[in-house]
Every structure is written in structure tokens, then in C-alpha cells.
Amino acid sequence: MARENTTVLLAHGSGGSYSRRLIEEVFAKAFSNPLLAPLNDQAVFSLPAKKLAFTTDSYVVKPIFFPGGDIGKLSVCGTINDLAVGGAEPVYLSASFIIEEGLGMDELKRVVGSMAATARSAGVSIVTGDTKVVERGKGDKLFITTTGIGVVNGPELTPSNIRPGDAVIVSGTMGDHGVAIMTHREGIMMDAPVESDCAPLHTLTREIISAAPAGVRAMRDPTRGGLATVLNEFAASSGCSITIREDDLPVKEAVRGACEILGFDPLYLANEGKLVAVVSGEDAGKALSAMKAHPLGVDAAIIGFVTEAPKGKLLLETSIGNTRIIDMLSGEQLPRIC
Amino acid sequence: MARENTTVLLAHGSGGSYSRRLIEEVFAKAFSNPLLAPLNDQAVFSLPAKKLAFTTDSYVVKPIFFPGGDIGKLSVCGTINDLAVGGAEPVYLSASFIIEEGLGMDELKRVVGSMAATARSAGVSIVTGDTKVVERGKGDKLFITTTGIGVVNGPELTPSNIRPGDAVIVSGTMGDHGVAIMTHREGIMMDAPVESDCAPLHTLTREIISAAPAGVRAMRDPTRGGLATVLNEFAASSGCSITIREDDLPVKEAVRGACEILGFDPLYLANEGKLVAVVSGEDAGKALSAMKAHPLGVDAAIIGFVTEAPKGKLLLETSIGNTRIIDMLSGEQLPRIC
Q1: Domains in chain A, number
Q2: CA distance, residue B300 to nearest chain A CA (Å)
Q3: Model ipTM?
Q4: Which pLDDT score is estimated for B319?
Q5: A166 and A139 within one domain
């Protein structure tokens, strides 16, 4: 072990001295914090709060580096966002790595560095983790599972709170992440490549809740399955009907163009730095202003409203004045988008 | 979707209607509990405690079904055990699944059923989760990442507490899990097949702490890398020396036999239902009695002691009376053992 390994070996997942060295020299160095430092199998901390939020996600995005981000940044942002849209302040993350034998050590370090930088700038700590290595051909470079704990101090947000008269607001343009991955993966050349919107949303959700503490019913980050899938879930959970207006939906020109060429619908495309909020009609203006004042919400828009019937359905008012029912994503649009 | 799918499809990872159906009909049904039921992206709960413990592990064991358990049971026990050996009572788990396209739906249901049964009998709830699907040949049937939260009410246990005069106790026979996986994987026929010891240890750790609250310094479950690796980490963290006696180490005859044939050393083999505890010399007898009175500790034995020097080293007194230094596992003994 005098020379440094340039790729990840099966031995790095053995639990023995190679594992120890990988943990100390790659993970512990990058994520450096007092809770992780003892390298015990568990982190122990005090976290006084009336309520805690707990969420997990595995990331299998392909390729692991893409315009606007990488699997590491995505894995930290995604878990922060799942806490944030539940009204929680993210505090601690765990990170578990399933590495395919042969992954370049430089690639791993780049991903881990990206996770560390994202976590640090978001004010969260990665306090515990695990690493497994599988044989060549039994994985695909790198899968990461991040789990987060947050504290809930304000109202608990849940789609069952949604009621008729509420407004539907998105924090920005839809479909950027999906198009960024798809065009990059397929090698499609664009004049101005679309970048993933991958970003942590917890400071945005904080502003929204602070602007309209009693008015926010539910928030969600429309990732896999896109906005149409989230709003279908909201309609189903609340037993209400949701109507959105095609003309009011913010979509970048480049994303619209790529969708037309490739036959995708921005309503079903994944986003990784956007949220949809349902807010009381009364407070919708305050929530919208709070979003627009935040760097991640400048393109925010009210795109629809909640009514009583048809129960559990999502409707789209199209540009030409028709209204049609929009279902959840059915089948597979884009595998391994996150 | 009128007919039920017999295998997992890429669409089951899409985030859309196939994902929803998989979550509702497989995961939510098996794990059924009030925190999971809303199927939000995060679970929210109150957990009043002075201190919390947080741990994560990915499971990539191959094959996914083996004598004495399966990847599902292993993933629940392993995370419970990482909390338990830190002195925590396990409370909530998350579970994230990375499934290879084509996995039999019946296999998935069997694993999930096993997780649910193990969690229920251990008194923990699986309250949040995620599912991703990767293409055929980009995974290997099923990888599971479980993350656990526990409450620490008693002393916080950490290897840096270990000091000269302490005793080293194991809760039972070493190497059962490693030999069970290895012989099963290689198709080696044995008169009496060795079963994995896979079991949740939190009631055993509770008894140990209760019997010797001030005497327990540190506990660890010797999984990957085995007992030798854990005791090397203990020696390094505490700056003490640890000596164990070969003759006192409990090893099943069948395990010893398999090790001799295959060239493995029980000191480096993985265990999934055993722990090693370092306890003050004064309290060692009480801790040993508490272990022996528990169904998972009937073969418990005091196997060694802690001294001042040689600092950071693990020594083995062999059956023939020699003493030699035992290193951490170096290289790879058995890939994908857990």
C-alpha cells in the first residue's frame, strides 16, 4: 500500500485496512466535522426540537457528471430538498456509497468534494456513512444514498391540507434538469446547453414559510415524474381538483425546443432545484413575492388553482383554450434521471 | 396495468404511476405504519431524547437469499446493530432500494416481507424510503441502504474509553455469517450447513448496559473485516494494546472445518449477530453473565484483556503458546459478504 491506488478496488469494500484508508483519506478529509471524526459506526448528537423530519433517497443518475452538477451535488441537494419541502430545516446527512470496482479514484474524489462543498455551503454536516464495492459489471460507476434529518419548527406541511381556493405556485422554470441530462447523455449539441437546476432549496422554503406561515399548505420538489406527477399526487391526497394554465408555466426556450425535437413534455420532466407550493388564495401574493425576492425563485409564477371538482384530478387549460385531464407519468420517460 | 407485473421494470423507478403502485402495493403494505402511510417524501415525528444516534449502511450481499437470512433481514439487523452497539435504542429506519431491471416481483416481495417481519419483531418502524431501478447489467438484483435513528439514554460508548485492565468479551461464536455465505455461494456441500447468525442485537446490548452501566467502554458488531479488524480499531482508537487468547475464542466446529479447507481465518470472517464488548475488569463477570442469560449470548466468552503496551496493537496468544501481532484485514477476503 505504498503507492496510492488510482482506481477503487474490491479491497476498498472489505472493511479492513483498504477501507479504513479510503474512509480516512477521501471521505473523512472532505466531509471533516467533529461528529464524523471518531469514525464510529454511528454519529451521536443532541438535536432538541419538537419535531424531526427524516428522509432518504438513492441516486443512480447517469452520467455521474453533467452540465450544472454531478451525482454528489445532486445527492446532497435532493435530500436537503426533501426535508425543506416538508417544512424542515436540514441539519445532518448520512451518505452511503456503492462503488463499481474500477471507478477512478480521481472521479470519486471529485464527487466527494462536490458533496462536501454543497453540504458546507448549505450549512449541513455529513456525519456518518458507509462504502461498499461491487465487482465490475455489477454496478455502474457509483450509486449514492443520502439520508437526512431536519428539525420542524414551523407548521407541518402535507398535501392533505390542500383545499379549494388555494393557488399553485412554481418557483421557476420546469424541465431544466431532465433536458440537461438527456441532451448530455445523448450527445445532442445545442447552441446554449441547458444546465441542471440542481440546488438546495431550504433557504427558499424558509422565506416562503416566513412570508405566509399560515397559508402554505404543501410543497414538493418535482423531481422524477415532474410537475404533473406531483400535482396528481396533491389532487389525490387532498381529494380536490387542480387546474393549471399552460400559458403561465415557466419553461426556458431551450428546454421547450429540446422537448419538441425529442417528444418530451416539460410537465413530466425532472427538476432538481425547483419546488411547487400550494398556498391559500389569500396568501399567494405574499408567497410569490417571497420567492421572487430569492435568487432561486426569480422566475416564480402562479400557474393554477384548486377547486372542489372533479375530485382528485389535474386539469390543464391549454394555450388554445381547451381543458384536458393530465395523468401521472405512466411508463418510463427517462431512466436514471436522478 | 391490468395484469400484475411479474418482474421489476425500469418504469417502476420512473417516479410516476408504476412507482406509485409499487410503493403502495409492495412497500407500504408490508411496512405499514402511521408515519409511512401518508407517503410523503419525508417522515415527521417527535423523538424526545437527550441524545440521538444516526447510522447508515448499504447492503450488497450476494446471493440475496442465504442460509439463515436474506438481504432484507440483514439490512434491518445490520442497522439496528450499529445503533445498539453505540448504546442506542433503535426507533426508526429508512430503506432505499436500488433494483436491477428484471428482478422477480416475488423475490422483491419476499425480501420486503423479511424486512417487515424483522423490523416488527425488533420493535422498530420503517418510516420512509425510496426506490430506483437501473438497467439490466448495471446492478445485481438488489442493493438496499438502511439508515437508522436511535435514542441514547445511557452512557455513550466509544472505543476511546478503553483502558488497561479492561476485559474483551464476545457474545458468541465467530465466523458463522462469513462461512454461511461463502459455502452457499460456492456450492460447497456440508453435513450440517452453517447458517448466518444474522440477528438484531439491541435487546442483548440493553441487558449488557443494564448489568454494567459504568463498566461498558465500547461495543461493536464485527461484520466485514471480522473480530481482528474491530479489535485493531479499538487498539488504535484507545492507544492501548489488546491481547486475545486463541483457545478462548468460540468457533463452531463446522466453521473451523470450512476455514481449514478454504484457507480462511475466523478472526477475519464477518458476523451479523454477534458483538464484542470491552468492559472494565471489575464488571466483566456481570456483563458476561448478562450475555449468557440472553438467547443470543449463550456462547459468550471472555477472550482477552487490555494492557498499556505495545500501544495500538492487537496480540494473539496461540494454542501452542506463542504470541503474535494480528493486523487488520488487508486486501479482500470475501467480496460482498454484507
Answers
A1: 2
A2: 22
A3: 0.96
A4: 93
A5: no
